[in-house]
Amino acid sequence: MRGLAERFGRLTSTGLVLAVLVVAIVLGAILTATEGRNFFSLGNVSAILVATSVLGFVAIGQTLVILTGSIDLSVSYVVSLTTVLAATTMDGSSGNVVPAVLLVLAVAAAIGFVNGAVVSFLHVHGFIATLGMGLIISGYLAVNYAGPTGDAPRSFALIGATRIGPVPLPVLIMLGCALLMILMLRRTRVGHQVYAVGGNPQVARLSGVRTSVPVITAHVLCSMLTALAGLLLVARTQVGNPTAGTQGQYDLMSIAAVVLGGTLLAGGKGNITGTLAGVAIFAVMDNVMAALQTDPFLRDAIRGAVIVAAVAVYARREIDRRPARFERPGVLDAALQEAK
Amino acid sequence: MTDSQVTETRTTAPLPYHAHGLGARALAVLATPGGAVLVLAIALLLATIAANPNFGDPGVLIRFLGRTAPIAIVALGQYYVIVSGEFDLSMGAVIAAQVVIAGNFIGEDESRIIPGLVLMLLLGVGIGVVNGLVTTLLQVPSFITTLAMMLALGGLVDYLSGGAATGNPPDKFREIGRGAIEDVPVVDVIPYPLIILTVLCVAAAWLMRRPFGRTLIAVGDNPDAAAVSGARVWRVKTQAFVLSSLASTVAGILLVGYAGVHPSVGQGYEFMAITAVVLGGVVLGGGRGWVLSAVAGAFALELLFTLLTALEIESTWRDSVQGLIIIAALAVSARAWTLGRGRRTSPPPKTADRPTEPTPGTNIGEN
User: For residue B300, is it within any domain?
Assistant: First the structure.
């Protein structure tokens, strides 16, 4: 009991993110109620959960990559590529579902491997390596696919439509993947190496970590999780769309969700629970703005403001918690001092 | 050791960097990524002329330079931010906002050109200050600050314009972007954008040799060391963001001449600019790279596209080729900086948002 109290007394970054999520839900419920609608109705809750699933897959993968100190900007193109590859391979027949899923996972793993290898062996910054990979895929898509193609069979579409109670099956799969990744980060050697390399690659290397292993693992897992997001989109729309990923802005939104979830963009610190909360905050925000019938263009502006406000809150917290060493004034204090 | 002794030591044993003549040093520069981009640009230029002899005509070439000026100016602006160790993802959105303002505020009224320009420049400064202060004082990573600024500005622009083309500024305003000094011998015309770019390049080269430029690089290399040595990190970085959004503003003014008024003008310019800057050998994470190499990077990128067109490669493959070239160029330049610096084995870690002291027990969090 006392341990529990201590845990609540010492608010961690993740605790703070979850608190922000609770605030978002409460505010959302009140705002939705003013429109005369019930935020907690079965339909609405399940709509929010569905909204979290696609971005959720991508953001879990992005968390792994960002934890190693890299970044993945190719995810939205991987989503697009996955949808067209899966839909064209399935081609309307249930027998092709398993080969199609295996094919896209293999392709995604290969893309992730190349990303990771370029980052760790050629020493190209992750930002550029994955931007380049994104461009390469984008060229391939532009050459080969003009518009929506392929056809997913009904049996595959059922995966997107099935729900257990109020919880849609895709959300359960997403949570399952999240759990696996959490276990990997907390219980396996490579998981610990992810944090070590993200925290300080030199120190990790000198401590005997082969730094390429966690970086490549993270990139491969990220691409494969992104492919699952693409498969989910196919299950929902039953066609492959070469612009599905770029329309969803999964690259930038997943990074925003990861940072909103309290993970340091420089790597080495953060976790998947926070990221899931970050994705949920986005979903709640979108749901409430839809209920209030906010102008869709204005939504982007509000989203931007909320991201900065939330991240600023965490950032200030990081500074406050740092032990004082040289009695150095904070940046704000220094600015005020100068203004005098 | 007294002062005279120091002077004597210097004259007898010059620093390794200055040990050779000017020619040898210039050659050595070409072996660094910042110099190599010049070789790359010239090689691409020669290849383009070989594929399409028409391109070698001075008149055609100078028009190409004029057309490329806006992206070069955006790269110039992005350079300041990248060399200080940050990112600016809002440049495309700033261009769109300025273009829409030009369309809506100036409209067909020629008397509003000057107030319109003043308004656009003020907005540019304002956006830069907000980006800079949120990044430095609120300690939000610039990737997120400017991403949010991109979302917010883009959303507002679409909201105000309804997402479609609006207004049409007078031809006199559009002249800035598409006009030129006529009847020049040899090159036929000198486009105004090229003149503006030249002025900005000279100013940038001068600025980077001023205390501001030196501090900017020091801050990008190691913000903590720079702060301890007395640099006002927050101020220098904010100034870099202001310069970057001002560059977007100028590019926006020029682009109105070419592309007219539409909220999609400037889309993707931020990534183009980052690519150009990095192609120019500037290290992501800050502290290393020359400003004019960033501009050369922009020209190299555009020359590459022109070459692909001249070779009649399907335009849809352009993205793929661009991606491959960027990765290859960066892989080579990562090697070159490593060799040039001897001891450094990897790019400097980004220290901007990393706590100086590890906080025990928080690495795994409360999963």
Answer: yes
Q: Least CA distance to A187: which residue of chain B?
A: B364
Residue B343 DSSP class: S
Which one of A183, A265, A272, A317 would you mutate to disrupt binding with B, by most B Cβ within 10 Å of its Cβ? A265
CA distance A75 to A51: 18
Q: Residue B367 — pLDDT band, cuts 50, 70, 90?
A: very low
Tokens describing residue B171: 């031809």
Instruction: Say what the pTM is.
Output: 0.82
Backbone angles phi, psi at B246, to 5 degrees: -65, -40
Q: How big is the A-B interface in CB pairs under 8 Å?
A: 221
The total number of structural domains in chain B stands at 1
Burial class (CB in 10 A: 0-12, 13-18, 19+), A290: middle
Interface with chain B: mutation pick from A60, A70, A127, A192, highest number of B CBs within 10 Å: A127
pLDDT digits (tens, 9 = 90+) for B250-295: 999 998 887 777 777 888 888 889 889 988 888 888 888 888 999 9
Q: DSSP character for A168?
A: E
Judged by a CB distance cut-off of 8 A, whether residue B9 touches chain A is no
Q: Give a yes or no: residue A246 inside a domain.
A: yes
pLDDT digits (tens, 9 = 90+) for A41-95: 888 888 888 888 899 999 999 999 999 999 999 999 999 999 999 999 988 888 8
| Residue B59 domain-assigned (yes or no) | yes
Domain holding A249: CATH number? Answer: 1.10.3470
Number of domains in chain A: 1
Q: Does residue A54 form part of some domain?
A: yes
Which positions in chain B touch A189 (Cβ < 8 Å)?
none
d(CA B136, CA B233): 8
- Within a domain: residue A126? yes
Q: Output b/e per residue, A142-170; b: 16+ Cβ within 10 A.
A: beebeebbbbbbeebeebbeebeeeebbb
Would you say residue A39 lies in a domain?
no
β-partners of residue A164 are: A167
> The domain spanning residue B87 has which CATH number?
1.10.3470
Q: Is B365 left (phi over 0), alpha (psi -120 to 50) or beta?
A: left
Burial class (CB in 10 A: 0-12, 13-18, 19+), B205: middle
**Is residue B47 assigned to a domain?**
no
Domain range spanning residue B284?
54-334
**What residues contact residue A250 under an 8 Å CB cut-off, 6+ apart?**
A54, A55, A58, A75, A76, A79, A226, A229
Residues 6+ apart with CB under 8 A from A280: A21, A48, A52
Q: How far, in Å, CA of B250 to CA of B262, rounded?
A: 16
Distance CA B18, CA A35 (A): 73
Domain-located, residue B164: yes
